[in-house]
Amino acid sequence: MNRTTILKWVSGICEGLLAIPLAGGTFIVSMSWTPLLFMFVLHTITLILSIKDSRFSAGSILGMITSFIGAIPIIGWVMHTITALVLLIDAAVETKK
Question: How much is the pLDDT for 97?
Fold first, then answer.
């Protein structure tokens, strides 16, 4: 398993945790939206490595967008859920190769 795949697993799991109704939102608000900044940086690093390794990078781009609009209650929850699914499916496909 390469570093890009590992980062996709990690960012997908983190997005999944942020997608937990009420708990994810409470965590984000209680930390003054710092988790969204952290996730943006993580997605940016994953995107750069994905491009460098010629891997699928849509999940990281979607994650960066999600980090910006993740503060909007219902939309943020939906976006975190979608992003988590895209990243985890992508990581699983890369793991099988």
Answer: 73
From the CB of residue 37, how many other CB atoms can be counted at a distance below 10 Å? 12
Cα(first)–Cα(last) distance of the chain, in Å?
A: 9
**Residue 87 in contact with residue 79, Cβ under 8 Å?**
no
Place of tokens 């398993």: 1
pLDDT at position 71, please? Answer: 84
Cα separation, 93 vs 18, whole angstroms: 23
Which structure tokens are listed for 89? 């499916």
Helix (H) or strand (E) holding 80: helix 73-96
Amino acid at 70: G
Query: What is the Cα–Cα distance from 69 to 71, expressed in whole angstroms?
Result: 5
Closest-CA residue to 82 (of 35, 51, 90)? 90
